[in-house]
Amino acid sequence: MFDWDAVWKFIVSPFFLQAAWTTLWLSVVAQLAGVVLGLFLALMRMSRFKWLSFPVQVYVWFFRGSPLLVQVLLLWDGLPKLVPGLLFSQITCILIAFSLNEAAYMSEIIRAGISSVDPGQMEAARALGMRYWLAMRRIILPQAARVIIPPLGNEFNNMLKTTSIASVIGLEELTGTAEILGAPSFSIFELLIVATLYYLLLTTLWDYFQRWIERRLDPEYAAKGGRPGRRPGQKSWAQRVLGFGNPPLESGELIAGGHGGAR
Amino acid sequence: MTQQQSYNGYQEQEPPLPSAVPQATENTEMVRVEQAVKRFGDLLVLNNVSMTVKRGQVVVIIGPSGSGKTTLLRCINHLEKIDSGYIYVDGQLVGYRLVKGQLVEAREAEIAKMRAQIGFVFQRFNLFAHMTALENIIEAPVHVLGIPRDEAIAQAMELLRKVGLEEKAHVYPHKLSGGQQQRVAIARALAMRPKLMLFDEATSALDPELVGEVLKVMRQLAEEGMTMVVVTHEMGFARDVADHVIFMDHGVIVEEGPPEQIFDDPQNERTRNFLGLIAAD
Ligand SMILES: Nc1ncnc2c1ncn2[C@@H]1O[C@H](COP(=O)(O)OP(=O)(O)OP(=O)(O)O)[C@@H](O)[C@H]1O
Ligand SMILES: [Mg+2]
């Protein structure tokens, strides 16, 4: 018999709130690490030096070509055998495996974003005496972000769900909690429903957030009126933080006192 | 030189723009190219090119498509590396430095510092697409030279006035015409107070009716004494403004001299053919 009472009892229990929190912060940290590492991998991959780009090719080939579950188990079971005495927690293992895996995907997304920027932009930056990193940070990445943000949002949606793999090594995120709590009372099915509801909640909230960001980064947003009270041409916080998504101005239209909203 | 020092150096050059006149020293040569050779794979693009540009001079390079004009300009600010030969800008070797009598490749910081003193104007403008005209102009002064933002903005507004685009300060490049974009690009280069300006077919991506406004700015700059190397197909401009004209073909300087000689009495068959073709256009 399906036990609805178990669902209601557990859905607001500290166990699942804790589990949802674990799922959320695992996802956020792994995604952030994946983005940062992925950026470096992307830049290495785009280097004209073979000794920089080739290792990245192998890296991406490995992490995209084998299952994440296997990568987690290799790290969890395999590494301590290779390095006797090596001890790390489940959390550490999962964070490492997920970050490394995500970095492979992010490196391809970031590379596509950077490639989408006209090479003339880099040339102009360098001709003005900007060094590589300055040009990347100020000129290239802000323009690449427009291409990178939408798939990055999808990656995070995936990440929220993929963290369920952590349950195989006994980590108590949503899926693991459902299994562990459900086993003694034979109510795994009910608890998996609870976990599913939490996953749906997290991904739905993220979906709204993602759409909100993308709308804010749309250069036409402010021009179309955007949020009431914003002067034409004024940048939203997302545009300021990320440094792009500039609203086009009608020619001759001046912003009183401002300088195009730059920092 | 540290950023701080170069900033101080910048301040010594008061009064601020628009008088973009390079400082004279006893050295009269701004650019010296010695037997430059450049290959792209098997293609010999620069074949033993030598030339000099004196301080305050306007040198115009003409020649058919593919003759290596763009490549020569790009080598001067080291966007492209020459395979052999030497290029000096203001007495300094471009892209290399001497260490105990040996030539060593310069570090990125040194190359960047040299480029910061050379303005480059591209055929396709290359304005930063995510920045307004004003932001484009202050970007490098603020982040490369370390000039305070207010000061950079004041200078940029003056430059925009100079190129006649004051009212476009807060407009993004895609809302500007090609001629306006190119004028902003020139202002952006001038904001670094370059001692040398390189123009690579600055008007050839423009609709005919927009060419004049850009040439006017270039002409004004030449009159102010800016040292300029100009690649162009605008023969009228070359004849009026150039102190010296270089005709290139197949990676070689075929003929050079004062504009009257090149345009009215070309000595070389290929020059005559090329100018004949242009006139026939
Ligand atoms: N990055 C590159 N890789 C390979 N070949 C190149 C490259 N850049 C230029 N070339 C080749 O070098 C030759 C000279 O090119 P360059 O652009 O200097 O000519 P140009 O005189 O500026 O011609 P145009 O008037 O068409 O601009 C051309 O044959 C061109 O195809
Ligand atoms: Mg060219």
Structure, briefly:
Chain A has 263 residues and is mainly α. Chain A is 72% helix and 0% strand.
Question: Could you please describe the fold and organization of this structure?
Answer:
The complex is a heterodimer of chains A (263) and B (281). With 263 residues, chain A is an all-alpha fold. Chain A has eleven helices and no strands. In chain A, α1 crosses α9 and α5 packs across α7. Chain A starts with a helix and ends in a 21-residue tail after the last helix. In chain A, 33% of the residues are buried. With 281 residues, chain B is an alpha/beta fold. In chain B, 38% of the residues lie in helices and 25% in strands. In chain B, the strands form three sheets. A six-stranded mixed β-sheet of chain B has the order 8-9-10-3-11-12, sandwiched between helices. Chain B has a four-stranded antiparallel β-sheet with strand order 2-1-4-5, with helices on one face. In chain B, α4 crosses α5, α4 runs parallel beside α6 and α6 runs parallel beside α7. Chain B is globular and about 50 Å long. Chain B starts with a helix and ends with a helix. Classes of the chains: A mainly alpha (263), B alpha/beta (281). Chains A and B meet through α6 and α7 of A and α3, β8, α4 and α6 of B.
Which characteristics define this entry?
heterodimer, A: mainly alpha, flat, disordered C terminus, B: 281 residues, alpha/beta, four-stranded antiparallel beta sheet, 12 strands, disordered N terminus, binds adenosine-5'-triphosphate, binds magnesium ion
Low-confidence runs of chain B: 1-26
The residue fraction in helices of chain A comes out at over 70%
Q: SSE string of chain A, helix = H, strand = E?
A: HHHHHHHHHHH
**Which word captures the global form of chain B?**
globular
User: Helical percent range of chain B?
Assistant: 25-40%
Number of strands of chain A: 0
Q: What is the chain-wise order of helices and strands of chain B?
A: HEEEHEEEEHEHHHEHEHEEHH
**Count the helices of chain B. How many?**
10
Overall residue-averaged pLDDT value of chain A:
84
Name the structural class of chain B. alpha/beta
**DSSP strand tally of chain B:** 12
Task: Kindly report how far apart the N and C termini of chain B lie.
Answer: 50 Å
Q: Assembly type of the shown chains?
A: heterodimer
Bound molecules: adenosine-5'-triphosphate, magnesium ion
Uncertain parts of chain A: 222-233, 245-263
In angstroms, what separates the terminal alpha carbons of chain A?
61 Å
